[in-house]
Sequence to fold (135 residues):
Amino acid sequence: VLVQSSSTSTSIIITMTAAELLTIRQAIYMIMGANIGTSVTNTIVALGQLKDRNEFKMAFAGATVHDMFNFLTVLILLPVEAASGYLYRLTDAIVSSWNLKTDKSQKKDLLKKLTKPLTSKIVQIDKKQIEKITK
Fold:
């Protein structure tokens, strides 16, 4: 995926996995790569603060913490995943526990199922108001 944002890359990878264009195993490694790739962005942003020494120190410190978190996470999880398939099996166990129906004719809407309890409490749409605005 040739985009700068790890969030965008990860979203595309997840979509491709859902569409069965990638396997879950492939997606795990690609997402790890996206997290390493985003580390360059932090450093570039920190370099933008060079004109003020104190701001640069703070920005570079924040970027370094983020970078080290990403590097250490991949440094630990990549060999564990390659040797044992831990993340793949964990993902499989989580998804299997949801007891999702596999009927291909039925519309799948997992995201709505997961987010509806929260969004129904936060977001309330008044259809009559929307109709007034569109007229």
Summary: The CA atoms of residues 10 and 100 lie 23 Å apart. DSSP finds six helices and no strands in the chain. The radius of gyration is 21 Å. The helical segments are 6-18, 24-47, 53-84, 86-97, 110-122, 127-134.
